[in-house]
From TrEMBL:
It holds the Pfam family Glyoxalase. This is 4-hydroxyphenylpyruvate dioxygenase. It comes from the Eukaryota. Pathway: Amino-acid degradation; L-phenylalanine degradation; acetoacetate and fumarate from L-phenylalanine: step 3/6; Cofactor biosynthesis; prenylquinone biosynthesis. Its cofactor is Fe cation. Fe cation binds at H221, H303, E389. GO terms for molecular function: 4-hydroxyphenylpyruvate dioxygenase activity; metal ion binding. One of its GO terms (biological process) is L-phenylalanine catabolic process. Residues 46-187, 218-378 form the VOC domain. It is found in: Cytoplasm. PANTHER family: 4-HYDROXYPHENYLPYRUVATE DIOXYGENASE.
Amino acid sequence: MGKAAETNATAAAAAQASSRAPSFKLVGYDNFVRTNPRSDRFPVRRFHHVEFWCGDATNVARRFSWGLGMPILAKSDLSTGNSVHASYLLRSGHLRFLFTAPYSPSIATAASAAIPTFSHSSHSSFAASHGLGVRALAIEVEDAEFAFSTSVAHGARPSSPPIHLDNQAVIAEVHLYGDVVLRYVSYKNSPHSDLFLPGFESVDTTSSFPNLDFGIRRLDHAVGNVHELAPAIDYIKQFTGFHDFAEFTAEDVGTSESGLNSMVLASNDEMVLLPLNEPVYGTKRKSQIQTYLEHNAGAGVQHLALVSEDIFRTLREMRQRSGVGGFEFMPSPPSTYYKNLKNRAGDVLSDEQIKECEELGILVDRDDQGTLLQIFTKPLGDRPTIFIEIIQRIGCMLKDDEGKIYQKGGCGGFGKGNFSELFKSIEEYEKTLEARRIAEPAGA
Ligand SMILES: [Fe+2]
């Protein structure tokens, strides 16, 4: 290689390295200035669905249906002529969960798959590595082919090229983090009806589950845990054009309480929110993100935050089913947390509502714009990995161009304040126990 060519090659390598170097530094919550450059690289509509890969879709779908109040609305399985995979679609409002499991490869006819990106080999390594988990986060875009080609041109690693489904819809996939893909879905004719995807047939739920609905309406955010935040954020930002929406570092909330750094990416209208977490090491307590990464054998979806239109109703319904096949919740905070809550949110929540929060174990946080009510389930499956968050956001009501009222995305934040608030209330509670022990000498 000549000298000039060598210099050029070195310069190119340096340029490539610098384009790969993290383009941001975490500045912490207080120094973070929120702006919306509306920098999406392709038109994004909404979260479309979340696909879980399981060993047996019938059982997992029914458990989620019962636990979350989401009827099973559509299916693609042997009964509809699909010999590759069994898939069941649950829906509540705009939230769609899809549960997929493989049939025996020996009977599979590839052309019969409703989700043609399904692969037996990917599924079997996914299931062996991760157990139950999210395979695909799907977003509806204006044009899945354009979203895919633009993403790949900006560094996305392709997982499946665009595939036309029955001349009605297109799906394409790129790698997101770990073994999770970002799936683009677009429809040929807009506005589309109740069609999910071609190849799915409706399930009649009216006789078996009349009015099954706990008030869950849509997916608010889907959080990923990764080993290293900077390269993961850079990668996703680069190919989606999504912008920084919020962040906090371990220092913001006290290292031993959180053990994580976090950053949120948002689409133009801030309705597709993708937070990412990385573990922080050397803390008193082991980082919960590190625990996840070990049990999940790598990066993956940590939690899905589901918006309820009435969190009290949703929680009452879900808690009734906790011990009989539904989902269990993390332990409720001590009463000291709710005593302090009147000072923190007494202007937004009535005394009755604060009492209801305490009865149901709901946490409350706020940011400069609104208030967030939140609660976390225990892990959904065998491993301490993926869980669900139920939320309701209060405030930030805006009018669109047509005068329709809507709520601004991410209103009230993501619950950052609860790390320190929970820690404080547990400390206060422990002090009350201490005081009791002093007042009641041993043996009394
Ligand atoms: Fe969350």
